[in-house]
Specification:
With 292 residues, the protein is of the alpha/beta class. The chain has one domain: Rossmann fold, CATH 3.40.50. The chain is 31% helix and 24% strand. The chain is built from ten helices and eleven strands. Strands 1-7-8-9-4-10-11 form a seven-stranded mixed beta sheet, sandwiched between helices. It has a four-stranded antiparallel beta sheet with strand order 3-2-5-6, with helices on one face. It starts with a strand and ends in a 7-residue tail after the last helix.
Length: 292
């Protein structure tokens, strides 16, 4: 699944990206129609700032005054046991959930202000879900190119080129024609990443990417994410209970416990934290990692 947000503001009416998302077929460029109607060659990282975010589900206070800053271009992981609010926080960043109070800013632009007061936003984002969310009726290539074809973003020849390129980036060269039923769990994860990369997002989010993967496949996925850091400038946010994975791929890590952020730091700072909550989590989840 992939998501796109672009709003030109109420003074200008619906923006051109909004129209693209609703299947506008006519070109809005003058002269010769380009290969793609959206610039898919460049990415930029976006900064994220979360201030006093609260979320209730009935009487359950899931997020409690969450404050967090993620720098543009950073690979940032949010760790913690199951049921602590990690995925709920991730869904707020892409507006799948609305807070009861507090705000999230993307490049200093608020997400949850009333639309009449909103400032223009111009970033692309995508999410890799825990289940991979591939369409079994489509081939690998068709899954990767789905957004481009549905929204008629590029000409067919360019779409095929992008599909090949993104699959190569995740180590699946030449797998366009495979059926999803033929894929291992790790391959499905990588196809889901390639599909997200097809829109060249400025922000990419992963929800429990190592779920149901064996240690060898988890290691392959970690190396895939590390290689992507070398070729893209986007901001990456990962939610995971797998601390070993987070320590390996992240620039910085935040731990959430009982709906609150209890510590933020580099992988080394997390491993050597004196916070008893963090130390207990590290001790029970990083077997074989020597604490300094």
């Amino acid at each position: 699944m992939f998501l796109k947000y672009f709003d030109r503001g109420h003074e200008e009416g619906e923006g051109m990206f909004h129209k693209l998302m609703h299947g506008l077929t006519g070109s809005f460029f003058h002269g010769v129609e380009p290969e793609c109607r959206v610039n898919l060659e460049e990415t930029r990282g976006v900064g994220i700032r979360i201030e006093k975010l609260n979320k209730y589900f009935g009487d359950n206070h899931v997020l409690k005054d969450v404050d967090l800053e993620i720098a543009a271009g950073e690979t940032f992981s949010i760790i913690g046991p199951s049921g602590t609010g990690k995925s709920v926080l991730l869904k707020h960043i892409i507006k799948l959930e609305t807070p009861d109070s507090g705000e999230i800013y993307i490049d200093d632009t608020p997400l949850f202000q009333p639309k009449s007061r909103a400032i223009a936003r111009d970033y692309r984002f995508s999410m890799v879900f825990q289940s991979s969310a591939l369409f079994n009726s489509l081939t690998v290539g068709e899954n990767v190119g789905l957004w481009l074809r549905e929204k008629r973003i590029c000409k067919e020849q360019k779409i095929r080129e992008i599909i090949r390129q993104k699959l190569a980036m995740v180590g699946l060269d030449g797998k366009e024609g495979m059926n999803t039923s033929e894929l291992s769990g790790g391959m499905k994860k990588r196809v889901a990443i390639a599909r997200s990369l097809a829109m060249n997002p400025d922000l990419i989010l992963y929800d429990e990417p190592t779920a149901e993967l064996d240690p060898v496949t988890t290691d392959e996925l970690a190396n895939t994410i590390l290689k992507l850091r070398e070729s893209t400038r986007n901001t990456t946010v990962i939610v995971t209970h797998d601390l070993n994975f987070a320590l390996y791929v992240s620039d910085r890590i935040a731990m959430i416990h009982d709906g609150r952020i209890v510590e933020v730091g580099s992988p080394d700072q997390i491993k050597t934290s004196q916070n008893p909550i963090v130390r207990n989590f590290v001790h029970t989840t990083t077997k074989g990692i020597k604490l300094a």
